[in-house]
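Sequence in, structure out.
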Amino acid sequence: MTAIWIAALPLTGVILGWTIRWLYARFQLASAERQAERIKRDAAKEAESQTKEMLVEAKDQIIRERNQQEREIRERRAELQRYERRVQQKEETLDKKIETLDRQEQALQARLKAATEKEEALAGQEERYRLELERISGLSAEEAKKLIIQGLENEAKRDAQIIINKIEQEAQLSAERRSRDILITTI
């Protein structure tokens, strides 16, 4: 029997060693699984906290950028309002100048009409003088010459006045056109 015990003892040692080794491996596996689960939970918590931090940072960045954009938009609106006020003031100034030019043109037209009427009246009066001269042709040559010279002088003065009026009108109209062109170019 001792021989059986001697033969059974190594077999029992092997079985006992294998069982202890199996139990030890099971224990280490369970420990490794628990550690892996703990690492997995820690990693998930850390990933979640990092995600939250990144979201908070992203939100803060978005808020900063939005505030910056709103500030820029307000500045641009204020600048546009300043430009609009300037344009409106210029338009008002131009409207006033155009009204002034229109009034001046109307005044000039009235003066032109009055000058034309005077010219027509003078032409009629001159014609009456001529008829009168023809009627009284019995005058002395000296008196007729004086009357003719006086008539010619009046006619020359009237023609000169007409030329002067036309030149003034053309100059006035030219000045108005140029001022309108300048105003339009300025606009």
